[in-house]
Amino acid sequence: MSSGHGRRVDRNLWHPLSPYRHWLAINKNRTNEEEDRATTARFSYFSWLSDRVGRRPVYLAGALFSAAFAFPFFWLVNTGSAPLIVLAFICVMGIGGAAMFGPQAAYFAELFGPRLRYSGFAFARELGSILAGGPAPFLSGLLALWMGSAPWGVAVYIIVLALITAGSIWIGPETFTSDLQADEESAPANGGAVAPAE
Length: 198
Known about the structure:
mainly alpha; single chain
């Protein structure tokens, strides 16, 4: 990827653990491969778990963990200790994030029948990204500014978003046993009988 100055920008520059690669003493390319394998393993594990116990419990656990870990995350990062910062990112991405992203694709797809699945999935996911993810950098920066660069306002913001997610999952249906071929909207509500014309 090229910057506006014509220099090549390494994608690893933006990775949260990039400043600590020297501490990890691992080759950058090898680290990327290991991160990719670890991410695949985490997502696969939580996907598998959601196939066994349900989408909602796994997703809900990820959201609640993210809420509970918001303040500890910043406490660990603010220590300035490389091992503790790495631990903070491992926990937030490896448990909270993976527990939500692992079952997310299956859960969102199962919420809709075949006729509406693609548009329903896309609309639900992308609208959520716009409403929650779009203003997040601006609001986080504003909260940090208001708090005199302290991250506690951002931690509260994370908690609020995680609790909204948890509440949405709590009231949503469980879908992991649903029939993906069934389209409830195509079945007449009166059991197949044709209503008389008026």
